[in-house]
């Protein structure tokens, strides 16, 4: 498939940015893919031919050159860094370019881009619902986005042809584009993405403290505990920005789940507990059928 952009620039070759570059290489056509990251990562990406060009962080002239050539710029960095990159993108991007991002929170990024980017440079927020507890270019995977939902901000004022181009690109790497307002996205991901990270981290800390006084906790822990705590290995550098940017929705999600735990606590010695489990099983079956897991 021929990709709908001539030159794509990815700023940040971590797990998501690196996987995008690898996916473009595997599933794409004639588009050139360049990148900006630390020199060591750029050299690895060039050596594996995941990108065709790149420049190191701190190389201002090189960054401006890469930005001026690209007709699609993907900000694939933690939220704080995405916001920090916007001024340089605004000053250097070519007229008609599309700027997008992969941030896990949309409202704050969309608002900042709308305020900072000049007329004729367009922003279309995005968020691939794919990832791993692992981080870094070394874990990049061209198939990471296969069958994954890829959210696109439906409130963008980008021209229809650019929206169609990004949609085509997302489909080319095997993902499923889904148009959604930024505000709704942030509220939903607080419950189904950010809350699981919180639960895994809290459960791991709880068990770790117990294990320090009674090591049998880790000795007996098996697959269920392992699966529930997998996300506890995630990088704080990424989640710090996510929680800060989506704080109100995350707090609401925590409060909502505390209420759910209280409900479970009330039912634990109640005849209604069987129905509670049955409802959960039905919900899980529906989820499995939708996700084909």
What does the secondary structure layout of this molecule look like, with pairings?
Blueprint: E1 7-11, H1 15-27, E2 32-37, H2 39-47, E3 53-56, H3 60-69, E4 72-75, H4 79-92, E5 98-101, H5 107-116, E6 122-124, E7 126-128, E8 149-153, H6 160-172, E9 176-180, H7 182-213, H8 216-220, H9 223-228, H10 236-245, H11 247-267, H12 273-291
Parallel strand pairs: 1-2, 1-4, 2-3, 4-5, 5-6, 8-9
Antiparallel strand pairs: 7-8
Helix pairs in contact: 3-4, 4-5, 7-11
Q: Mean pLDDT, nearest integer?
A: 93
Strand order of the largest sheet: 3-2-1-4-5-6
- Number of H/I helices: 12
Radius of gyration: 21 Å
The biggest beta sheet reads: 6 strands, parallel
Helix content: 55-70%
Kindly report how far apart the N and C termini lie.
27 Å
Question: Which regions contain 5 or more consecutive residues with pLDDT less than 50?
Answer: none
Order of helices and strands: EHEHEHEHEHEEEHEHHHHHH
Task: Count all strands and give the number.
Answer: 9
Which structural category fits the helices and strands? alpha/beta
- Strand % is 5-15%
Q: What general form does the structure show?
A: globular
Give the oligomeric state.
Answer: single chain
């Amino acid at each position: 498939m021929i990709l709908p952009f001539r030159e794509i620039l990815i700023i940040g070759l971590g797990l998501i940015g690196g996987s995008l570059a690898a996916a473009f290489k595997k599933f794409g056509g004639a588009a050139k893919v360049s990148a900006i990251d630390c020199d060591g990562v750029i050299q690895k990406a060039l050596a594996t031919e995941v990108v065709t060009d790149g420049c190191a962080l701190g190389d201002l002239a090189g960054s401006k050159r890469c930005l001026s050539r690209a007709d699609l710029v993907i900000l694939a960095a933690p939220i704080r860094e995405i916001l920090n990159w916007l001024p340089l993108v605004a000053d250097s991007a070519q007229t008609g370019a599309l700027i997008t991002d992969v941030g896990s929170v949309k409202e704050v990024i969309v608002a900042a881009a709308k305020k900072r980017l000049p007329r004729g440079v367009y922003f279309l927020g995005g968020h691939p619902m794919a990832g791993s507890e692992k981080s870094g270019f070394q874990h990049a995977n061209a198939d990471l986005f296969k069958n994954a939902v890829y959210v696109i901000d439906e409130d963008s004022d980008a021209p229809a042809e650019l929206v169609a181009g990004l949609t085509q690109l997302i489909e080319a790497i095997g993902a499923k584009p889904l148009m959604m307002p930024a505000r709704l996205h942030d509220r939903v991901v607080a419950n189904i993405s950010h809350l699981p990270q919180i639960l895994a981290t809290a459960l791991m800390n709880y068990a770790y403290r117990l294990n320090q006084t009674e090591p049998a906790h880790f000795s007996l822990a098996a697959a269920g505990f392992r699966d529930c705590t997998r996300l506890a290995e995630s990088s704080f550098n990424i989640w710090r920005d996510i929680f800060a940017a989506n704080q109100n929705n995350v707090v609401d999600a925590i409060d909502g789940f505390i209420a759910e735990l209280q409900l479970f606590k009330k039912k634990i010695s109640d005849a209604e507990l069987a129905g509670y489990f049955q409802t959960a099983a039905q919900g899980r079956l529906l989820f499995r059928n939708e996700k084909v897991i």
